[in-house]
Structure formats: structure tokens, C-alpha cells
Amino acid sequence: MRHRAVLLAAFAIAAPGVAQKMNAEEFHKRATALQKKGALAVFSGGEIKKLMREGQASGDASRVNRLALEKAGKPPRYCPPSGPQKMTSDEYMKRLDAIPRAERSRIDMTEATTRIMAARFPCK
């Protein structure tokens, strides 16, 4: 259970302004490797921090893109309800895993996160 809390932190702790450095497939591989460590993942602090920064940067960029589209009067790709939204690391990884590996290899984490959010919060 503790390793899930560590992975959840990878997606929940803010690190604004951090540029993305990996594509979605690289993120998927690294996060999956951490999950496989189970409770021992707690000893991978550096890797956890890198994934936290990457995950937060992708979420921030996806949100900024959505807001810019709305401001420009264009339809956004996803429509979350107002207020903060939470997603467990397990749900995020399941949704990331649903993106075919070939596509994950070609897209960055912002696009992956946008696709994940579009599946979770489709616009009506």
C-alpha cells in the first residue's frame, strides 16, 4: 500500500514550470518499473521526483492548452467539472497503458495527459 502512496505522489505534487523531457512511452516504462518494485520503490527517491516533475508538467501544460482553447472560443479536447480533480496513479497508469505503445512512443506527456483527460472528461 505504501508504494501506491509514493506513486500517487508522483502525480499529485506540484512542480510548476518544469519542462517535459520524456515521451509517453519512456514515462510509462519508468513508472511501470517503479510499480514493479512494490514497497521497495520508496528507495527510488530520485526516480520518483523525476516522474513527479514530468507528470505535473504534463498536467499543467494540458490544462493551459485547454484554457487557451476556451479563451479563443474554440472547443477544448476535454471538459472537466469545476474544482480540483483527482486521479490515482493506478487509474492514470491504466489509462496511459490503454494508449497503444506505438502511439506512446510518438507523443509527449502533454498529449498523453490530454488524451487521458479527454477519455475521463469528454465534452458533451
Task: Offer a concise description of the structure.
This protein is mainly α and 124 residues long. It is 65% helix and 0% strand.
Key words describing this protein structure:
124 residues, 65% helix, 0% strand, disordered N terminus
How would you explain this protein's 3D organization?
Helix content is 65%, strand content 0%. With 124 residues, it is mainly alpha-helical.
What is the SS-derived class? mainly alpha
- Mean pLDDT across every amino acid position: 83
Shape: elongated
Question: Low-confidence stretches at least 5 residues in length (pLDDT < 50)?
Answer: 1-19
Radius of gyration over all CA atoms, rounded: 14 Å
By DSSP, the count of extended strands is: 0
Reconstruct the topology from this structure.
Elements: H1 2-12, H2 24-37, H3 45-71, H4 89-98, H5 101-106, H6 109-120
Helix pairs in contact: 1-3, 2-3, 3-6
